[in-house]
Design goal:
- The protein has helices at 8-13, 23-30, and strands at 34-43, 49-61, 66-73, 87-96, 101-108, 113-122, 125-131, 137-143, 149-157, 165-174.
- The chain is mainly beta.
- It has one domain: Calycin beta-barrel core domain (Lipocalin, Beta Barrel).
- Strand 9 (149-157) and strand 10 form a beta hairpin.
- The relative contact order is 0.15.
């Protein structure tokens, strides 16, 4: 028997790749596994704008049956001394083979947010969608995906997808080893 490990991190990840019974589908998000650096812009309802550095980390979770990530703003490497967290959240993405979609939960204790959504591939992009309590439809979209970069957009519609208001965007590049 292999050396037993009781650490939380090893139990959470437990693997360095997808579960064999769903490996092809897991690569929709599995291609993001690794560390990413970049910038984020948040857009307020009144036109205000907030720019910051950002870092994102994706990893295999739950024996390769899920993808988990952490979104950090400002980046721990790019923040000024004493600058507080503006976002420190995590997403758990689990593929649902019965419905050929992804069940996704995001939580951010810094901003006190908890969003549950469905994700699907849409051509070369990924669209995640949920409805807010006020009825607005929110989408989190991965666009312009390459092996080393992607553009992540959040937007919302109050008229059933007729028009969209941009609420935030990340421009991320894969972190290279020093």
């Amino acid at each position: 028997m292999a050396k037993a490990s009781l650490s939380f991190i090893e139990a959470l990840s437990g693997t360095d790749g997808p579960a064999p019974d769903r490996a092809d589908k897991m690569m929709l998000y599995g291609r993001f596994v690794g560390a990413w650096d970049g910038t984020v812009t948040r857009y307020g309802a009144n036109g205000e704008r907030f720019d910051s550095s950002a870092e994102v980390h994706f990893g295999w979770a739950l024996e390769g049956r899920a993808i988990q990530d952490v979104w950090i703003v400002p980046s721990r490497l790019g923040r000024t001394p004493g600058e507080p967290d503006r976002m420190f959240g995590t997403t758990l993405r689990i593929y649902d083979p019965q419905h050929d979609c992804w069940d996704i939960t995001f939580v951010d204790p810094v901003r006190q947010t908890h969003d549950r959504m469905i994700g699907r591939q849409a051509g070369p992009d990924i669209i995640q969608e949920y409805r807010k309590a006020d009825g607005a439809i929110c989408q989190w979209c991965f666009f312009e995906i390459t092996a080393n970069s992607f553009h992540w957009v959040s937007r919302e519609s109050i008229d059933e997808r007729q028009t969209w208001r941009l609420t935030g965007e990340f421009y991320l590049r894969r972190r290279t080893q020093a």
